[in-house]
Design goal:
Strand content of chain A: 25-35%
Structural class of chain A: alpha/beta
Structural class of chain B: alpha/beta
Number of strands of chain B: 17
Largest interface: A-B, 95 and 110 residues
Distance between the termini of chain A: 61 Å
Number of helices of chain A: 6
Order of helices and strands of chain A: EEEHEHEHEHEEEEHEEEH
Shape of chain B: elongated
Largest sheet of chain B: 9 strands, mixed
Strand order of the largest sheet of chain B: 9-8-7-10-6-1-4-5-11
Helix content of chain B: 25-40%
Number of strands of chain A: 13
Shape of chain A: globular
Strand order of the largest sheet of chain A: 9-8-7-10-6-1-4-5-11
Bound molecules: flavin-adenine dinucleotide, adenosine monophosphate
Helix content of chain A: 25-40%
Number of helices of chain B: 8
Oligomer: heterodimer
Radius of gyration of chain A: 22 Å
Mean pLDDT of chain A: 92
Distance between the termini of chain B: 72 Å
Low-confidence stretches of chain B: none
Largest sheet of chain A: 9 strands, mixed
Radius of gyration of chain B: 23 Å
Strand content of chain B: 25-35%
Chain lengths: 279, 330
């Protein structure tokens, strides 16, 4: 089995988001970064599958030089190879991101062996575009399904089974012939923490780099735009970010019911008042 | 004259889905602004009956692919069908619900056409350049963006737009049936098995009271006290990502951006700091009571009520007080 996981580096925002003065980005001066949570589970799953089935695993990200940190995090828990599509740090729209990832997968596969599975997150935690995995799969002509919380293989190892939650509750199962693409969700597994030796090993490993630079602003591919609606030309990039802002929030100071266990009668009064406790 | 606005309507049990009605609501406003008609695309054998109910939502025409291969969910095939409706109508925009399926199917339409797609939009303003306001970080952050393409694809963020149907006796839309050309490849990713929900107590997403626990609960065993309180209130227990990452609770109990969105009458947040990713999952609660040792924790900014103190003593005191008032020993 040969597996690729595509991960995105996102800021580890906490209690509140602070934007840069120009409103173009999250102020990350005092924040760490992490692999977007759905993809963290994708990384763990790839490691588990290779431990069980044998084969090889790789992780890929499109991002700034600093995203090397997330690639090493993935290698620290057992991913073998890492590929960084290095940008100048500016944001890439999902159409351009997908095009660059699809192209890299094609060149990687031409140079070695095809990926039986490519794992994406269901959506990136920051931009939440809900599309990069589907675009890459479509460009590669591979079947794709999102929202996956369980993965197993058919006995002949030529197809993958994948399960996701059904809209009204319960589960639905899909069976995809490989090579296939899956968009996974947190809850797929419980990712392990890297061990110290794992971290040290990851530190010494090569990261394959491809310099991409700034996001393409024009249309991608020949004749893009004109025939886009007919699927004939290339793709039209977008949406184009103009700025970010925080939603208006209705903040009201909390009514303090008391301190410590002495507050219990006031709490139970409240429970009765709002009708969640039968008198 | 601009082409119509085409809305993709998901349905179950003969009724349009709630989130699709929200999408129709935004689509209808957009059609009015553009001075064009609102049309719908409905898929599957039951499509015609559902289409017939869309009159009060101002749908003038419904395109129905009553193909039974579209009855079960198959995102690429659904995308291909919508794409066929797009070719037939040359719409100014295609609007879907920001549901799991809505976003996925629209992504297939986008991938097939090479058009850009804006997910989880809350506002759209057409013009020389179209402007959208869309959600990032599950709604903790808003993005102003330009969406410029011959056809604009957008999904509507859940619960951001009110559903306002017109008179119930509004005329039913005219129905145009169509047969999309489906390739075998379009039908590869489709549901091959269903499993019903295993009934086990009150589900977190439907509970009227949710008792949530965070790192402050201290251990898996610490949740027993929270469970006692939840039982007394006929509610369910949930938690933050910290407690699911630590393995104190299963991921299915996680509330937040990468877990469940809940909307109970009362949410009791115990030992939870109130990170933005947690808040997006619980802010739809009618009331929030926070129990926290730190009066300055961010949860206080969204809580309606608070008890400052150690949950390990506060929660048992509450359960004991409930028992006392009920006249049975704790
Ligand atoms: C991309 C991304 C997605 C995320 N998705 C989610 C998500 O879906 N859901 C989610 O919950 N988080 C999510 N997170 C994590 C989130 O940022 C926070 O780290 C997490 O919510 C914090 O959990 P907590 O409040 O339990 O822990 P902490 O932040 O550590 O807070 C513990 C709180 O308990 C209080 N406390 C401690 N001891 C006691 C005591 N004895 N009695 C009373 N109070 C006490 C402390 O004062 C503090 O306020 C996500 C993060 C990222 C980066
Ligand atoms: N810059 C990126 N680098 C690598 N993978 C990405 C990047 N952006 C998105 N992805 C992948 O595509 C998935 C869906 O992203 P999105 O369509 O942006 O919500 C993510 O969960 C990632 O797996």
């Amino acid at each position: 089995m040969n597996i690729l996981v595509c991960v995105k580096r996102v800021p580890q925002t906490g209690g509140r988001i602070v934007l840069t003065a120009d409103g173009q980005a999250i102020d990350t001066r005092f924040l760490g970064h992490t692999i977007s949570p759905h993809e963290e589970c994708g990384v763990e799953e790839a490691v588990r599958i290779i431990e069980k089935e044998g084969g090889s695993s790789a992780v890929l990200t499109l991002g700034p030089a600093g995203a090397e940190e997330q690639l090493r995090d993935a290698m620290a828990i057992g991913i073998e190879r890492a590929i960084l599509l290095e940008t100048d740090g500016g944001e890439w729209d999902p159409v351009s991101t997908a095009a660059a990832i699809a192209e890299t997968i094609q060149s990687q596969e031409a140079a070695s062996e095809p990926f039986d599975l490519v794992l994406f997150g269901n959506e990136a935690a920051d931009t939440g575009d809900y599309q990069v995995g589907v675009r890459v799969a479509t460009a590669l002509g591979r079947p794709v399904i999102n929202g996956i919380k369980e993965i197993w293989f058919r006995d002949d190892r030529r197809a993958v089974f994948a399960r996701r939650e059904a809209p009204g509750g319960g589960w639905e199962t899909y069976e995809l012939p490989m090579p296939a693409v899956l968009g996974v969700k947190e809850g797929l597994n419980l990712p392990r923490y890297p061990s110290v030796p794992g971290r040290l090993r990851a530190k010494r490993k090569e990261v394959e780099r491809v310099a991409l630079g700034s996001s393409p602003s024009g249309a991608l591919g020949l004749g893009a735009g004109e025939d886009a609606a007919d699927g004939q030309g290339g793709a039209v990039p977008g949406p184009t970010k103009l700025g970010l802002r925080l939603p208006a929030e209705e903040r009201t100071a909390a009514t303090i019911l008391g301190e410590g266990p002495d507050a219990a009668p006031a709490v139970v009064d409240l429970l009765e008042r709002v009708g969640v406790l039968a008198r | 004259m601009s082409g119509p606005v085409l809305a993709f309507v998901e349905h179950a049990g003969g009724e349009p889905d709630r989130l699709s009605l929200e999408a129709l609501s935004l689509a209808r406003g957009l059609a009015e602004t553009l001075g064009t008609t609102l049309e719908a695309v409905v898929l599957g054998s039951g499509g015609e009956a559902v289409a017939g109910r869309l009159g009060p939502h101002d749908v003038a025409r419904a395109h129905v692919a009553a193909d039974e291969r579209l009855d079960d969910y198959a995102p690429a095939a659904w995308g291909a069908a919508i794409r066929a409706a797009v070719s037939a109508t040359s719409p100014a925009a295609v609007v879907a619900a920001g549901s799991e399926r809505g976003n996925e199917v629209l992504a297939h339409v986008a991938a097939r056409t090479g058009l850009p797609m804006a997910a989880n939009v809350v506002e759209v303003t057409p013009g020389d350049s179209w402007r959208v306001v869309r959600q990032r970080w599950a709604g903790s952050l808003l993005e102003d963006a330009a969406l410029d393409a011959p056809i604009r694809l957008l999904s509507v963020a859940p619960h951001a737009v009110a559903v306002e149907p017109a008179a119930a006796d509004a005329p039913a839309p005219s129905i145009a049936t169509f047969e999309p050309d489906l390739e075998p490849a379009d039908l590869v990713a489709r549901v091959v098995g269903h499993e019903a929900r295993t009934e086990g107590g009150i589900s977190l997403s439907e509970a009227k009271v949710v008792v949530g626990g965070g790192r402050g609960v201290g251990s898996a065993a610490g949740f027993e006290q929270l469970q006692v309180l939840a039982n007394q209130l006929g509610g369910a227990v949930g938690g933050s990502r910290v407690v699911t990452s630590l393995g104190w609770r299963p991921h299915s109990d996680q509330i937040g951006q990468t877990g469940l969105r809940i909307a109970p009458d009362l949410y009791i947040a115990c030992g939870i700091s109130g990170a933005i990713q947690h808040i997006v999952g619980c802010k739809a609660a009618k009331r929030i009571l926070a129990i926290n040792t730190d009066p300055d924790s961010p949860i206080m900014a969204i809580a309606d009520y608070a008890v400052i103190g150690d949950l390990a003593t506060v929660v048992p005191a509450i359960t004991a007080e409930i028992e006392r008032r009920r006249g049975t020993p704790a």
